[in-house]
Structures are given as structure tokens and as C-alpha cells.
Design a protein that fits this description.
With 308 residues, the protein is α/β, with parallel strands linked by helices. The protein is built from ten helices and twelve strands. The protein folds into two domains: 126 residues, Nucleotidyltransferase, domain 5; 161 residues, Nucleotidyltransferase, domain 5. Helices cover 37% and strands 21% of the residues. The two termini are 26 Å apart.
């Protein structure tokens, strides 16, 4: 690597979750050259992350800066993690300051949905777009907006909380029905009503999202119904985005997109039903292309914006 050339600069990004840590290395700003994932042990996350980042130095070679995507809201002025449902201990520490001191690296911290959106915008399904809305469907429901090539963060950096969007008059939120855990919950509550479903071979508590997806891909009508209803819920919320913003491109990512068209087709169908027709016709709704690496890739690209 030629350290004097921006075109050949090594970019490294890490995505943090409660269950695993994922790192990617990009050369020349866009070519994925290596990736590295380990399982978390379920204990205190900060020390595990420091050790993981130090391990990436051995694996990827020397680098001076790194991007870290976290499942939490990052306050743009203080750069502290203001809220994190899945790793709440991050709220109580100076995450950025302590991480830089422990790793001797320049670090950019970004919300994982924002990072994934940026990755898809630059290198994935959003390439060539000017404006983009990204939604991730997984353990939680996240969203992010990019206008004129820049992440739109809102007044404090908390824009894009798509899972909090109400989808009926009772105030039911999208995350209440469309996160992976809630898809499984809805499936467990109803699968015994369809004796023909292949899911009946499972004990109720054994059913996981991967089982629902696999059954649907094998033409199990009940499993397909569960995923299509998920798409309908998401499409209802996406229609609001289309109507309000007349957005150019919508990219749908996250673990639920392993089901591909089974969810995406239902999203598009419902969004079309509820959207202002001229706005819908101007919007492209597509699945993500980068997949599980989207957040790590996006935060690697964003790491070059570190100015603190």
C-alpha cells in the first residue's frame, strides 16, 4: 500500500452488535479486500471491542483510522452515544475518547443504520442516486436519510428512527410487528392454526426467523403469509416516506431480506397502494446489495470524515 496516495488508502470499518463484531478492509476506497467476524461472549462489550480492533491490525496490516458503527444514537455535538437499546452500557461512558485512547487510532463513531445507508449509497444499490432512504429490517428496525450525498441527521443526530413510526390508529409501531423477534412472535402465535405448515415439526419456542424464511422459500403458504404481512407493514410506513419526501431511491436491507422478493414484493405492493401515484412512480424501491457488510463498509468510507 502506498500511504501517500489517497486512492490507495486502506479504509477499515467495524460494526458492533451484542452478538458479534464484524470488520472489513477496503483498498482504494471501494474494493473489499478482507473481512473478519467473531462472536461476542455476551459480557462487557467495550473491552471485547478494543481487543477485536487490535486483532484487526494484525489481520489487515497497519492503519491509522477506523470507523465504528454502533447500534445506538450518536449525539453529533458531543459524539457520545446518547441511547442504545441493545448495548446500554455505551451510554454511560465516553465511548469515543476511551476507544481512541485504548487503540491509539483516530475513530469515527456512527449509528449503524446511517453507516449501512452510506455504504449502499456509495457502493451498493443506491449508486448513482442523489437522495436515498435506507431501512434495515433485523433485530430492530432502523432507517437513514441521505440528501444530496450527505447523511441527514436532524437537529441532534437522531433522524431516521423508522421503527418508531406508527402504522395504525392505535399507535402500534413498525418495530412492534416487523423486527425479527416480532416476526417470530407472530409466527409462534399462529403457526398451530395451519396444520399443513412445515413449521409444525418445531416446538413453538424453537422457531427462529431463519426457519420461517427457509419454509417460505420452500413454498410453505403459512410462512410466506407471515413474511408478506411483514412486507405489508413495512410498505405502509414506506408510503409515508414517499408521500412526504418524494424520495428518489429506497433501499431495504437487513437480515429479513434473506427472504428477498417474498418481503420486497409485498413492500412495493403496499407502498404503491398508499402512495401519491406520481411520487411512487418517481421512486425506486430495491433490496440492498452489500448485505451483512453494509454498515461496516459504510463506516469505513465515513472514517475519512473524521475531523475531531
Amino acid at each position: 500500500m502506498n500511504d501517500t496516495s489517497n486512492e490507495s488508502e486502506k479504509l477499515v470499518g467495524v460494526e458492533v452488535s451484542r452478538k458479534w463484531f464484524k470488520a472489513v478492509c477496503l483498498e482504494a476506497g471501494e474494493r473489499l479486500t478482507d473481512e473478519y467476524t467473531i462472536a461476542a461472549d455476551g459480557q462487557e462489550t467495550f473491552t471485547q471491542l478494543v481487543n477485536f480492533i487490535n486483532d484487526t491490525k494484525n489481520r489487515f496490516g497497519a492503519f491509522e483510522r477506523i470507523g465504528v458503527a454502533v447500534p445506538g444514537l450518536v449525539h453529533q455535538e458531543t459524539k457520545r452515544i446518547a441511547y442504545s437499546t441493545y448495548i446500554p452500557e455505551h451510554e454511560t461512558i465516553d465511548f469515543l475518547g476511551k476507544m481512541e485512547a485504548a487503540t491509539n487510532l483516530k475513530i469515527t463513531v456512527e449509528n449503524d443504520a446511517n453507516a449501512a445507508a452510506y455504504g449502499e449509497f456509495v457502493l451498493g444499490a443506491g449508486r448513482g442516486s442523489r437522495d436515498l432512504f435506507y431501512v434495515t429490517l433485523g433485530t430492530g428496525i432502523g432507517g437513514a436519510l441521505i440528501f444530496d450525498g450527505k447523511i441527514w441527521r436532524g437537529a441532534s443526530g437522531f433522524a431516521g428512527e423508522f421503527g418508531q413510526v406508527a402504522i395504525n390508529s392505535d399507535g402500534m409501531k413498525l418495530e412492534d410487528v416487523a423486527s425479527s423477534a416480532n416476526i417470530v412472535r407472530r409466527t409462534r402465535n399462529r403457526f398451530h392454526q395451519d396444520s399443513t405448515s412445515s413449521l409444525n415439526k418445531f416446538d413453538e419456542e424453537e422457531i427462529r426467523l431463519k426457519d420461517v424464511v427457509r419454509a417460505a422459500q420452500n413454498d410453505d403458504d403459512f410462512a410466506r403469509l407471515m413474511l408478506e404481512r411483514t412486507g405489508t407493514y413495512v410498505g405502509t410506513a414506506i408510503a409515508g416516506v414517499i408521500n412526504l419526501l418524494n424520495i428518489e431511491t429506497i433501499v431495504v436491507g437487513g437480515v429479513i431480506m434473506q427472504a428477498e422478493h417474498l418481503v420486497l414484493d409485498a413492500i412495493i405492493k403496499r407502498a404503491k397502494e398508499l402512495s401519491f401515484a406520481p411520487s411512487f412512480e418517481a421512486t425506486r424501491i430495491v433490496g440492498g446489495e452489500i448485505g451483512a457488510n453494509a454498515a461496516a463498509v459504510g463506516v469505513a468510507l465515513l472514517s475519512t470524515e473524521n475531523e475531531h
